[in-house]
């Protein structure tokens, strides 16, 4: 695929005339704006851009983007997107899913689109609840979540979207949250990645799971609770007074104090987005003892599916001519005079 | 055979040459009976006989050796006249072991010939087949003719020069048997030798051993002093239209028809599939046709298979998916999306015995309700059905045409019998097909520079708009849409209108397909035998026989199941009686009654096997009595 020509647009060019129907105050509004802000910066062409979604609050997203859009069925967006991408590899596909859509009913498809590495951006809005069906607990809800379907509290262990993605073979794993000013940068990095780029976006459901991410997303004290990862930079937080180091005895990560600017002495790791082993630790980092790892956790491209399919096709058809008459008459034939 | 089992003297019992013969090869599922049958079919076709085949094999790939449930069989009916079914009862049964004999003996014609491998009639194998004594020796086969000799030992002897171990040597038994069969019917071994050389290109020793076994079997027939039953039979070629012929299975025909259909629509084809018996063969065939603009995708499940195909259609390819009943059930929700978004899609259902896993390798027509009615909401979808392996080619093209011209999913029904069975096919000239090029919208189509994504043409189809087209950005999805703009609409009147429009579009296809006629007999007959799908062969033959006896009966066979051709009601009402034989509990009968308020009567069967001609003859006589 050739790099498409960049074109100039403004945020307005990406807005549709459709009335946005999320609840007032929903985190989805902020994500929508972040995406609409990001696309002009990428020089993206609306006619070549396609948003494909499943079912759920997040999946209404395509209706609000002045691009091509396909609101499909519950959990299956990755399959539609894979077919569309194979049919037209030049399309710039953004997949929009949620924690229920992508990890419950659609877990299988999400796994396979990541494993195959189909070139697209996958945004999973994680609000840890089923919003559109009125508040049941979801596969990412924390243990003990009280909901209409779990009045005594949920007992099952939540899935971790970023860990799931990496485990499925994702070559790009990013994380952000709805109102973060850094979200466009994460989306830009995802877009630059050739292959399936998975971005978990924590999203505040103000009706059914209000402020559930406040422990790290609230502006107050954010520095201490957010670890923004940057390739080639030390993993520092809390204004540079703390960092993440490797506990070599236990083969895990640990929080260390940094004296002055001397993070090297403290053993703080320099983030290497291509280090898959560290990425596995970052996606599993428990919040509480550790800050929330955000930004680009992992980014190490390898050939994407549609490129490999096209290459195989080119090889297979080299020197062959499509001749329907000949095809129909293949095999062992006989002629009746 | 075309007539009742008892009417025709079995092979060898009469000095006259028969005009058709039914042979069944039966053995262990590891004995290579399907290969033997396939190669015998090829030699039969090359000899210019008409033919029909019926592969009948267990679901297990390698069932325990020698067991009754591990028996695999291949039946072929061939002759110097038109052949319409694989035959009711075999004239010749080749039984490679006691289990194969036991399972297949009940269908053998009285006086028929049994060829058995005594080498396999050991105490152990007799026990496995639950024989108390050896049937070859205890007189229980007296009403048939028996030729029993040690095929195993003779095969081992024949391949000795090639230094194979005993186990490998015995693998060539099927070729020895094929060699004998080729001698019996005066066939050339040459094409089989060529095939073996190709198949074992990298193992010339194995190829040579198999050829030696083939030749040994042939020589045995030629030189051994056999008792009367084994006579050489020469079957004259059947008179056919001049032209190029080949054998074709339904799965091949569907694949080729899809390729032709996509070419006629001037579209690349995307095929999303998931392995399932008996539909997988279509995926296998298409995976090798990349130079025809075919992309195949083995999805992670049945749902992803259809969803990827719809995604491809959305992006401007002709999306196709294929499965069998259980997989079709999983695809139901996505079909609904294809229907409401109005995107072209071809869905092939190679039906098998159900419900649930049912009988995966056996044939049935029991997914008709599922095809016609089996979705949530008012979700009308055209359904067409192939009547034979060769007919599946034209049906696949027709499915593509309707999908593209009407912007709709279309279901093509075949079944396990059609998918696996082979018949001679006159290779058509692609120049004779009428193209139906797909049209894509390239500029706004509404007043005041607006885009109307659901503005319909004279057929009721909406425009196909490829993502990537400048200026035509729009959103579609599963939520009800405004009847013109395609934007989300919850307006009650709009939903009523859209429901009506979707129905009218599909109903209108009734006027865009050939009028329904009879394939035998005339409108107004006392009885119409009405069929669809793979019952064509037995119905056709049974009606022909009844008409020869002077009965006033017609055969009406439907390709277009939903909607049916516009004249269907008028035609069916012209008959005094309507009899609908089906391999289900009466599904098409229900549809006919529902659509036309006629007193259609059922004649049904669900034992996993196609109808026998004599069963239908009896049903016709009963209906007219």
Report on this structure.
The complex is a heterodimer of chains A (337) and B (625). By secondary structure, chain A is of the alpha/beta class. Chain A has a domain at 11-212 and 303-311: 3-Layer(aba) Sandwich (Rossmann fold). Chain A has helices at 27-42, 77-87, 99-105, 107-116, 161-167, 183-192, 214-217, 222-225, 263-266, 276-284, 305-317, 324-328; strands at 49-53, 68-71, 92-98, 120-126, 172-177, 196-202, 226-229, 236-237, 242-247, 252-257, 292-299, 333-336. In chain A, helix 1 (27-42) packs across helix 6, helix 2 packs parallel to helix 4 (107-116) and helix 5 runs antiparallel to helix 10 (276-284). Chain B has 625 residues and is α/β, with parallel strands linked by helices. Chain B has 21 helices and 20 strands. In chain B, the strands form 4 sheets. A 7-stranded mixed beta sheet of chain B has the order 9-8-10-11-13-12-18, with helices on both faces. A 6-stranded mixed beta sheet of chain B has the order 2-3-1-4-5-6, sandwiched between helices. A 4-stranded parallel beta sheet of chain B has the order 17-16-19-20, with helices on both faces. In chain B, helix 10 (280-286) links the parallel strand 8 and strand 9 (294-298). In chain B, helix 9 runs parallel beside helix 15 (391-406) and helix 18 crosses helix 21 (613-624).
Please give a quick description of this structure.
Chain A is an alpha/beta fold.
Mean pLDDT of chain A: 96
Unreliable runs of chain A = none
Average pLDDT across residues of chain B? Answer: 93
User: How many helix segments of chain A?
Assistant: 12
What structural class is derived from the secondary structure elements of chain B?
alpha/beta
Major sheet of chain A: 8 strands, mixed
Strand content of chain A: 15-25%
Oligomer: heterodimer
Radius of gyration of chain A: 22 Å
Distance between the termini of chain A: 51 Å
Apparent shape of chain B: globular
Placed side by side, the strands forming the largest sheet of chain B appear as 9-8-10-11-13-12-18
Structural class of chain A: alpha/beta
């Amino acid at each position: 695929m050739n790099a498409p020509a960049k074109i100039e647009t403004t945020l307005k060019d990406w807005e549709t005339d459709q009335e946005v129907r999320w609840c007032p105050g929903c985190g989805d509004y902020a994500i929508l704006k972040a995406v609409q802000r990001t696309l002009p910066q990428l020089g993206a062409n609306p006619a070549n851009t396609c948003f494909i979604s499943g079912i759920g609050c997040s999946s209404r997203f395509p209706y609000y983007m002045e691009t091509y859009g396909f609101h499909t069925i519950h959990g299956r967006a990755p399959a539609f997107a894979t077919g569309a991408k194979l049919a037209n590899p030049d399309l710039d596909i953004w997949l929009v899913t949620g924690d229920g859509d992508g990890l419950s009913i659609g877990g299988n498809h999400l796994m396979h689109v990541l494993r195959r590495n189909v070139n697209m951006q996958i945004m999973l809005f994680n609000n840890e609840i089923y919003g559109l069906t009125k508040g049941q607990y979801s596969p990412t809800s924390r243990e003990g979540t009280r909901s209409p379907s779990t009045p005594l509290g949920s007992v099952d262990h939540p899935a971790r979207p970023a860990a799931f993605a990496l485990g499925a073979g994702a070559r790009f794993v990013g994380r952000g949250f709805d109102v973060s000013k850094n979200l466009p940068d994460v989306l830009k990095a995802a877009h630059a990645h050739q292959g399936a780029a998975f971005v978990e976006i924590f999203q505040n459901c103000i009706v059914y799971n209000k402020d559930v991410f406040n422990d790290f997303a609230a502006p107050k004290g954010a520095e201490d609770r957010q670890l923004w990862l940057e390739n080639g930079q030390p993993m520092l937080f809390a204004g540079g007074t703390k960092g993440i180091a490797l506990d070599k005895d236990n083969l895990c990560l640990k929080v260390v104090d940094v004296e002055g600017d001397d993070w090297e002495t403290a053993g703080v790791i320099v983030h290497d987005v291509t280090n898959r082993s560290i990425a596995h630790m970052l996606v599993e980092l428990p919040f509480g003892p550790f800050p929330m790892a955000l930004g680009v956790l992992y980014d190490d491209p390898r050939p994407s599916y549609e490129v490999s399919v096209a290459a195989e096709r080119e090889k297979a058809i080299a020197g062959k001519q499509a001749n329907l008459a000949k095809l129909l008459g293949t095999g062992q034939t006989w002629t009746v005079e | 055979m075309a007539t009742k089992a008892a009417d025709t003297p079995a092979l060898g019992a009469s000095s006259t040459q028969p005009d058709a013969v039914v042979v069944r090869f039966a053995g262990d599922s590891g004995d290579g009976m399907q290969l033997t049958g396939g190669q015998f079919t090829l030699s039969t076709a090359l000899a210019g006989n008409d033919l029909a085949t019926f592969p009948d094999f267990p679901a297990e790939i390698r069932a325990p050796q020698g067991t009754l449930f591990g028996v695999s069989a291949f039946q072929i009916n061939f002759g110097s006249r038109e052949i319409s079914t694989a035959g009711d009862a075999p004239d010749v049964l080749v039984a490679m072991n006691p289990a194969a004999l036991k399972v297949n003996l009940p269908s053998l014609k009285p006086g028929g010939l049994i060829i058995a491998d005594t080498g396999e009639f050991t105490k152990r194998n007799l026990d496995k087949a639950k024989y108390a004594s050896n049937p070859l020796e205890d007189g229980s086969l007296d009403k048939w003719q028996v030729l029993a000799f040690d095929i195993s030992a003779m095969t081992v002897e024949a391949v000795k020069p090639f230094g194979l171990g005993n186990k490998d040597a015995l693998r060539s038994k099927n070729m020895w048997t094929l060699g004998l069969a080729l001698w019996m019917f005066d066939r050339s071994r040459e094409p089989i030798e060529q095939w073996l050389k190709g198949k074992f290109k990298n193992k010339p020793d194995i190829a040579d051993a198999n050829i030696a076994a083939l030749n040994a079997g042939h020589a045995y027939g030629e030189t051994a002093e056999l008792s009367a039953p084994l006579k050489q039979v020469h079957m004259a070629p059947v008179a056919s239209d001049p032209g190029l012929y080949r054998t074709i299975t339904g799965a091949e025909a569907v694949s080729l028809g899809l390729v032709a259909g996509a070419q006629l629509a001037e579209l690349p084809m995307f095929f999303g599939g998931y392995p399932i018996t008996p539909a997988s063969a279509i995926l296998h065939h298409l995976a090798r046709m990349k130079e025809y603009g075919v992309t195949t995708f083995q999805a992670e499940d049945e749902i992803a298979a259809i969803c990827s195909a719809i995604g491809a259609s959305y992006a401007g390819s002709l999306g196709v998916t294929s499965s069998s009943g259980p997989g079709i059930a999983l695809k139901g929700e996505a079909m609904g999306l294809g229907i409401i978004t109005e995107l072209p899609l071809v869905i092939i259902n190679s039906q098998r015995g159900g419900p649930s896993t049912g009988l995966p390798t056996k044939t049935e027509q029991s997914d008709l309700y599922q095809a016609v009615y089996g979705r949530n909401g008012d979700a009308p979808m055209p359904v067409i059905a192939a009547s034979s392996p060769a007919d599946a080619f034209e049906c696949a093209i027709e499915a593509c045409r309707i999908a593209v011209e009407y912007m709709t999913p279309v279901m093509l029904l075949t079944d396990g019998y059609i998918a696996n069975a082979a018949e001679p096919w006159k290779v058509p000239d692609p120049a004779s097909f009428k193209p139906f090029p797909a049209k894509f919208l390239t500029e706004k189509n509404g007043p005041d520079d607006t885009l109307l994504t659901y503005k319909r043409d004279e057929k009721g189809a909406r425009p196909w708009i490829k993502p990537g087209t400048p200026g035509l950005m729009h959103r579609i999805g599963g939520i009800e849409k405004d009847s013109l703009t395609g934007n989300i609409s919850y307006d009650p009147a709009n939903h009523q209108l859209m429901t009506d429009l979707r129905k009218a579009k599909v109903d209108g296809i009734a006027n865009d397909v050939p009028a329904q006629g009879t394939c035998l007999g005339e409108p107004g007959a006392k009885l119409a035998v009405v069929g669809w799908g793979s019952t064509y062969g037995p119905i056709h033959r049974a009606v022909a026989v009844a008409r020869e006896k002077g009965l006033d009966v017609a055969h009406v066979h439907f390709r277009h199941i939903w909607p049916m051709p516009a004249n269907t009601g008028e035609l069916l009402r012209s008959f005094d009686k309507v009899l609908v034989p089906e391999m289900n509990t009466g599904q098409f009968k229900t549809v006919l009654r529902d659509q036309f308020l006629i007193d259609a009567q059922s004649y049904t069967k669900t034992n996993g096997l196609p109808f026998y001609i004599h069963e239908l003859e009896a049903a016709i006589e009963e209906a007219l009595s």
